Input
Amino acid sequence: PRPSTMKRSWRSFISMQRFQVMRRGSMFSGLPCWMLLSIMAASRLLAVPMALVVGGAGFVGSHLCRRLLQSGYEEVICVDNLQTGRIANVADLLGSPHFSFFEHDIVNEWPVSGALHEIYHLACPASPVQYQKSPIHTFKTSVLGSIHLLELAKEKGARILFTSTSEVYGDAQVSPQNESYWGNVNPFGVRSCYDEGKRGAETLFHDYHEEYGVDTRIIRIFNTYGPRMSAEDGRVVSNFIVQALRGEPLTIHGDGTQTRSFQYVSDLIEAIVRTMQDGVPHCPINIGNPYEISVNDLAERVLHMTGSRSSIVYKPLPQDDPCRRRPDITLAASVLGGWKPVVGLDEGLSQTIAYFRHLINKAV
Ligand code: NAD
Ligand code: UDP
Output
């Protein structure tokens, strides 16, 4: 557990006062609206929040920790069990007085002393290869992990965000998928530990908000890629790039006509930050890039961009592998201040290829 002797500065003191004031909403109930808004605006100027990022040493989490620190957060606490995450992802942050790392499995409770304003629940392996290695633990991470973090949010009066997934739509029968679609998910298969764990966690977020008034946020992330993915992760973009750079055959599952819509990580991080702002609704919001491409075309694109002469081999399609996936991001655009992805596939792939090229060259 986090030591209670964590450093505190005058900035954190101010922010603690600010958040305690903000939470005591009833104190201000008699004030005119303009005065309330001025108080909120003034306190926002003083805001130096403290955030807990669970799963912060993973691919997305490590980008998020960086972004929060760059935005001037007083304290970013990263918690991770290092199942698929790596210390290397946050190694350069360890020297910062505003950053701390704790190795902990969120399936078990994690008491936090002192103030906490924001919780980001990113814990859970995202790659089918990784989350199927220990399915019961994957399920517990989403369900028990969410209960523990929601209880923490309730205790601290913190805002809490859950990273759900497009997998809640399963093998979707409609395309593109919008948030009102309930999905087509197999509850009794190899992907169920992930899909149903995430769906169960969404239910918990819904109910903690309804029953206890916890300030919740949910985003449904569609396939996201970029630097700091692990070479061993197993997802298609990192697999194809690593295989191409190593001169190994690219492994296409099935006939490669299944589609995905790939989002570059910086677009996701921008959406996460916006989702945590005031006034964003508690309902699930799709976050992804609607540009849809087949796995075959992705393989060709990677071969072309890396200049690789790797061959292609076809492997069996895994059970319950969705045929089509493409987000409808109308809701995100309307509630996140016009957010939309700005990094195209070619640009994102070239950044990711550069990252893996460096990683592989360093290893030899
Ligand atoms: P990732 O596997 O790189 O990161 C997950 C992190 O959570 C890792 O650092 C891992 O060690 C940690 N973790 C797993 N179980 C834990 C536990 N019980 N306790 C503490 N830490 C634990 O995956 P990612 O791509 O960075 O995904 C981050 C989150 O976003 C995940 O929850 C994932 O389900 C969600 N998401 C990601 C995508 C995507 O395409 N990247 C798509 C949909 C949803
Ligand atoms: N895939 C593939 N080759 C690989 C890894 C994945 O053809 O080496 C396929 C996978 O079967 C799926 C798609 O690529 O149809 C996306 O897979 P990924 O694991 O990246 O994420 P998913 O969207 O399935 O969770």
